[in-house]
Amino acid sequence: MGRSYGGFAALSCLSRLPHLWAAGVSICGPSNLETLARSMPPSWATTVATMIGDPDKDADRLRERSPVTYASQITAPLLVLQGATDPRVPQAESDQIVSHVRANGVEVQYLVFDDEDTGSPAGRTTPGRTSPSPSSWPSTCSAEHVRVVEAPGLTAPGKVRR
Q: Which of 43, 71, 102, 156 could serve as a FRET partner for 96 with CA atoms 20 to 30 Å apart?
């Protein structure tokens, strides 16, 4: 589960290491670094080129590092929350990953908040409205997807490793 860059990280993990995840949550997470870079205002070009890459010069590298490129490998149910007015991670980023994952028959719940941006979905609510809790969503996933994955060196839940 992650928001913004954390959402990108969650999508990257789900798409590149699908066997390790029972479910995933992306909150305003970029899914395609090339389209993300192209969507930024011209005044951000230098910052975007430094932090993400130049979409004209680095397009192949950006696609190679984008979760949407590997979306066909996602097998875990996915919850995607997106603010429609987000100026940093446009809704098109979430639209892309949702479309690709659903095309593979994977369970996706997609919630778009019309009046909110990156800082809002599931973090704040408009007065009179309740946002869903991403931390409780995995418990509503199909039971067939819930599994325990053991890895050497990791501590079982509730146990302290010494």
A: 43
